[in-house]
Structure of Phosphonate ABC transporter ATP-binding protein:
Amino acid sequence: MLEIRDVTKSFGDVVAVSEVSLRVEPGQMVGIIGRSGAGKSTLLRLINRLVPATSGDIRFEGRNVSSLTGQDLRAWRARCAMIFQQFNLVNRLDVITNVLIGRIGTTGALPVMFKHFSTHERGLAAAALDRLDLLPQALQRADTLSGGQQQRVAIARALIQNPKLILADEPIASLDPRNARLVMEALRSINKEDRMTVICNLHTLDAARAYCDRIVGMARGRVVFDGAPGELTGEVIQQIYGGADEDAVVDESLTSTIAPRHRVASAGDSRAAQAAH
């Protein structure tokens, strides 16, 4: 269980997150919505400890992660995988090596730097790519892929961290509708099939409604709504966005219910074995 207790983050005189308290049960898929500057991205960075909280604490499975340092902090970041809007891939490296970079929290920086990966690790990376329908692209340079493909590579990289929690910060904001659907399908499939907790900042209301079990609305750094998608009424939307329709993006292409289609490759999958070697 993830518990956020009265967490505040200030940058000088600017309060980005103000006294936020949330409790996320294992296996939930939570969508966080709100205007730009509402504090959504800062909240995810606080959970992952990319930025420290000014006050309050964050606990996972009873452990206070707000005070972790050194090796313990690196281990937490491995368990709490982060997916960014910008993909954060190394363009000149091939796809499978970009996925294997996700092992840095487990193996350390030097093996990753010199590409010293075990056969087992390569197999994990190949299976993750196969699950996301990207195994044929395993040996391509990352910069030859489309934006949607690159984001799915970033998801595969997160998967081989063997995390307990995935944080996705605006993962579909820069994607066209088709690729946005594929990325959201992938995250929902991981959530449902692996019972993985996923917390996802989303720019589109309909994506939050279609894919998330629970929606948290933020405004001016505070949580102003926390409930099921069906409770997201017009009045609530007004409270979250303050009438700023340009921020409350509606994308009808994401509203259809799509059954999970991704799978984990079996140990005997010949294509996964080929890429692993």
Notes: Residues 244-277 have pLDDT under 50 and may be disordered. The CA atoms of residues 7 and 237 lie 24 Å apart. Strands lie at 2-11, 14-24, 29-33, 55-60, 63-64, 80-83, 165-169, 197-201, 214-219, 222-227.
